[in-house]
Amino acid sequence: GGGDAEKRGALIVLEGLDRSGKSSQCRALASFLRGRGESVEEWRFPDRTTAIGQMISSYLSQASELDDSAVHLLFAANRWEKRSLMESTLRKGITLLIDRYSYSGVAFSAAKGLDFQWCRTPETGLPAADLVLYLDIDPEVAASRGEYGLERYEKVDFQRRVATYYQAMRDSTWQTVDANQSVDEVQEALREAAVSVIQSCKSGAELLRLW
Ligand code: FDM
Ligand code: MG
């Protein structure tokens, strides 16, 4: 244990169904943490800015078709192409707040009928989240939110299947927050969990790998 590990940032992931409020909660959580003097970067997957991300984005907006397994591997490759930047950022003491990660990768592809274990394999070796904040929302409530249904996976029956695969991946790093509550109540729950995991990463908690 050198000095670097003692000061590393935390890898915090927000997960949940489409329209569960992840993006706005991420933004609010980042500014809260910055207000406490933490260094924080907000990331999201898919990262649509890279060449791989553009293929994914075109697929999601239904402008192109791709084989289910091929697109699964593209989502994973989109994380691998960010792996070294993720690790060096954390080592600088910067906390990463990431909107979706490997858990989305597995849950959405498994919900299409791909084998759950096969889906996990290309994620193996990526940095594991120190904390997964799962925003638990009723798919019907999510569907009633603005602009739902524009992208490929935004259908209630599909999202219900996604939720069952998310449940299958829960481990000790997960905290489930009831996202049917008000925006402020959800934020309150996220803040507590985030502050505490940032502290344990500063005190030397090791960065683990999936899975
Ligand atoms: N999604 C996201 C996947 O299917 N696999 C993945 O690895 C990731 C990160 O892409 F429906 C799905 C989840 C969602 C869609 O995500 C776009 P955003 O958060 O709405 O951009
Ligand atoms: Mg979406």
Automatic annotation (TrEMBL):
One of its GO terms (biological process) is nucleotide biosynthetic process. The keyword ATP-binding applies. Its EC number is 2.7.4.9. PROSITE patterns: THYMIDYLATE_KINASE. Keywords: ATP-binding, Kinase, Nucleotide biosynthesis, Nucleotide-binding, Transferase. Belongs to the thymidylate kinase family. NCBIfam families: DTMP_kinase. This is Thymidylate kinase. It comes from Riccia fluitans.
